[in-house]
Design goal:
Length: about 300
């Protein structure tokens, strides 16, 4: 039996135990992480045998499910391999009070048989368990050329648990105008999450500077179990010209090579960004998004 529970009714300990023991465990699905994203309820099967978080918002009196910032994939989490029928059962258990549904499943969730608009997305991952020599051997030729170029810059790398504000502000300065869809809520949510993850020793801030000591780029990482999430990458113009991020990510690969860890690039459907990620020798992983619109006909234009 699947129940719909409010956040107040959810047993956080049992919820987090379910996520921790699931075959498709993801950082985004832990209760303490979801709490930073805003209001959420959930579908819970039995005694937390399987769960599905439902982040929601309300507009003009209508509740709707949405995809929160900094949670690329959610969906159903369970200790068993899920079937399309099981995923469908969860979708059909979503209360009708959510008049618009816009949710992303995780890559271990097969497509359900529910009607609606199903959208396929790409993510890029790199298994860091092989040795660095093995990993380096699979680098793309263009990446190898850029790393040779980067060596001449004498880049210096620093790793800390804090300092996320530096990376976020650099991203805003050099990318913010190009990505107007990223509103203030995106940055404030990410900084809250970075603070919480750092307090749990689940965050790293990698920054890179030139021989003059001036910061030129950085990457904000979240960590969980056997997965590292590249949440945000920032670089200024001198860093871009000097292939600073290529160098920084290569240093990261060296640091974690030979360990049972997956580097999750938080990948993209955008071809250029996907190519950049894949040149490190990783692979494309696909996951799905579902949209269902049950808003009254006269206001369907509010959410498309």
């Amino acid at each position: 039996m699947i129940q719909h529970l409010s956040r107040a009714a959810i047993d956080a300990a049992l919820w987090d135990q379910c996520i921790a023991q699931s075959t498709n465990r993801l950082l985004y699905a832990f209760s303490w992480y979801l709490d930073e994203l805003g209001p959420w309820s959930a579908l819970v099967k039995g005694d937390y045998e399987a769960v599905m978080p439902l982040p929601f918002r309300q507009k003009m009196g209508f509740k709707y499910l949405f995809i929160p910032f900094s949670a690329q994939q959610l969906g159903v989490f369970a200790s068993n391999t899920l079937t399309p029928e099981e995923v469908t059962t969860f979708i059909e258990a979503i209360p009708k009070t959510y008049r618009f549904v816009d949710i992303r499943f995780n890559q271990s969730n097969p497509q359900g048989t529910t009607s609606g608009e199903w959208i396929q997305h790409r993510n890029q991952e790199l298994d860091l368990n092989p040795s660095y020599e093995e990993l380096r051997g699979k680098y793309g030729q263009n990446l190898k050329r850029n790393l040779k170029k980067a060596v001449k810059e004498n880049w210096k790398v620093n790793v800390d648990a804090f300092g996320s504000e530096t990376v976020v502000e650099m991203f805003r300065a050099y990318k913010g105008d190009l990505l107007p869809q990223l509103e203030e809520d995106f940055y404030s949510t990410l900084l809250r999450l970075a603070k919480v993850c750092a307090s749990r020793k689940q965050a790293e801030v990698w920054t890179i500077s030139g021989s003059d000591g001036n910061l030129t780029g950085g990457v904000l990482l979240f960590k969980d179990h056997q997965r590292i999430y590249s949440m945000l990458t920032a670089v200024n113009e001198p860093g871009r010209r000097g292939c600073a991020i290529h160098w920084l990510l290569d240093q990261m690969v060296q640091q974690y090579a030979g360990k049972p860890v997956v580097l999750d690039f938080e990948g993209s459907n955008e071809p250029g960004l996907a190519r950049f990620n894949l040149q490190f020798g990783g692979k494309d992983c696909l996951y799905l998004q579902l949209r269902k619109n049950h808003l009254p006909r006269g206001i369907k234009w509010l959410k498309k």
